[in-house]
Amino acid sequence: MKLVAPPPLPDELAVGFAGRIRTLNAIETVARTLKVVRSEFGGTDRVSSLSQLAAACSSSTASFALEHSMLPLSRAVTIYVGSKADARVAGTMMIRQGLLSLRENAMACPCCIDEDRKERGFSYWRRRHHLPGIDWCFLHQIPLQQSPKSTYHDQPWMALGQVDTSRHTEIQGEMKNTTLQRLARIQEHWLQMPHSIHAGALNLVLKNRCTELDLRCSQHGKRPVISDIALDVLPESWIKRYFPSLLEKRKGEFLQKIDGPAVDRHVAYPSFACALVLSVLFDNTHVAFEHIAAANEPYLHRNTPTSETAAHLALQTFQRGMGLIDACLRHGADQRAVERLLRLATGNQSDAEAVPKAALAVAAS
Ligand SMILES: [Zn+2]
Predict the structure, then answer these.
(1) What is the mean pLDDT of residues 211-229?
(2) pTM for the full model?
(3) Is 311 found in the same domain as 293?
């Protein structure tokens, strides 16, 4: 058969796009549609369904994946940035996860559905409605409707009969939470990000921010950890659904899933956890994005200085008059390592606190 494939719509979810091709060509299921796409475009099992859908609408795999898959978000933080393994790992993820939506349910907004149908005569599934932990539409500020994943084979409005609305009152309360609003913004930003963030770059930003906030970045100790702050600022109803282990921890107890990204620079935690930690630590998402971009720069250009070199360079820049935090960001240095060097340089090793506070005072001036 000669397949009819329309152009994909803005932010259209790849699996929903496959569903639209199914409808236009009167094929029984999405799985069958993907087989027809594969045979029509000469693909083998080693070529991802995402690549074949891209070919079906005359798009490149890279731009189709960036605009229609959840991969930019699921790959937001990796340990492969700037390495030879990066492309290979991305290719494997494209085959295994290219059509995944990252949500247990198919999600849609009733107002978006109404507007789509008025404008186009039909509605479609959007990526922005499938961010982990975000259950409302940013555009219309109303709870999203959830239906079984099988409904991707039809348009969203056809799934209305299977919608679960039992949590709408709860979600209306959660929408007002500023930490969750930041979580939504960060994930939406990452969904459009053409490259990943190295786990080491994220770790550096988190460690520096924890130092500023006097939070602990280690398993044991007395100071509070990030998960203590998360427990205070997130709505209980939301924690129950998405991070129930947070409710079971004791004050000051280290919770690997949340506190881990600020400790392990060689481990890439799920992007959902990384975005959550950033939304808890930073009041301003733009500031977080700027810090991450600066810290990620050396990884992107495969010109990663050793941590020791970075700390020395940051110290020199600080001694020339730049603020300590800015100097650390410029060279991708760990703020505490620079503070240690500064103590050595001033011969004041015994007074562990005095120099950093002085340094911070200069940095803030
Ligand atoms: Zn909407």
Answers:
(1) 95
(2) 0.81
(3) no
